[in-house]
Amino acid sequence: MDFELTEEQKMFRDAVRDFAERELGPIAQSIDEREEYPFESIKKMGRLGITGLTISKEYNGSGGTYIHWCIAMEEIARVCAATAAILDTSWGLAARAINLHANEEQKKRYLAPLARGDKIGAFGLTEADAGSDPSRLETTVAKDGNSYVLNGRKIFISNAPQADILVVFATKNKSLGHRGISTFIVEKETPGFSVGSVHHKLGIRAAHSAELLFETCRIPTGNLLGAEGQGFSIALSTLDGGRIGVAAQAIGIARAVLEASISHAKQREQYGQPIANFQAIQWMLADIATGVDAARLLTYRAADLADKGLSFTTEAAMAKVFASEVAMSAAIKGIQIHGGYGYMMDSAMQRYFRDAKITEIYEGTSEIMRYIIARSLLR
Length: 379
Description:
This protein is α+β, with helices and mostly antiparallel strands. The chain has helices at about 5-25, 30-35, 40-50, 65-80, 80-100, 105-115, 230-265, 280-305, 315-340, 340-345, 350-360, 365-379; strands at about 120-125, 140-145, 145-160, 165-170, 180-185, 195-200, 210-220, 225, 270, 275.
């Protein structure tokens, strides 16, 4: 068992860290305030090969492992969690689903431009009455000759306003529950498809989310992903990988909090000495640091299992629930360490606090993660 990154992985980490600090650092606060989608940054990450991680070079990917993916997500989220969220949706979910379940023709047509970063993906699963329980989907699909016809509405879909390629889930009959769900690839310009209301969020504000509307949206039968009725299993297998990315994102946020809090504690003086000298501050820093390390080890374990082709559903759930709660706890402690300065809107601490919360919610709430873990223990 080796707890150290290889020299190649360290070089990759340093390259991503340099990119994040140089390209994302100067804009992270402003794009959050203006809710501005970082198109140019995404293009640059495509040129660096970050968008092609875990995808074969045969489809314009850059290869790499899930460990590489975790490294990239952590380093980017440490500087700009919204950009990390965009990555996780487009490449951790949409591209992953296509990579795992598409046929050769679909991979060449849809996976290759995603891997290059030329196009952006979205993952259309959540509905008003189908969040944690996707078996309650109400978006319907009916086969009509050489086409499938979609009707329905999705909500809270990350990247929806910008996505060129969407992985969408629909049911042929609601009474069939999860057995009736299939998965489809929908292109942005497809007649009958439109983007509805854009949601304004508490955090990750530069990563846009919106409704997806399908009104007699006709797509070719060749855009079926996998086989009919496999949609539920496709969703679950895709989300397992996405949860590793969310865990890494949470670690990045917690690391940002830790580094900022250490710096502030050393500089801020009260009673004639730096507040870093006070045990109350030291214990908060120690708790954050311990949580970050533990969360990273859990996340790397899940990623290592994924790289080996082994089951990692439970391990991904453990990593996500622990890392996301570490991030939220760290953000609360970080604001406390900064005192009044941390509560001001011109402080990055408030952004870390707002960004951390979503990691406990999307791609499976903490409650659902605990359900998955408990189910594996009791089966």
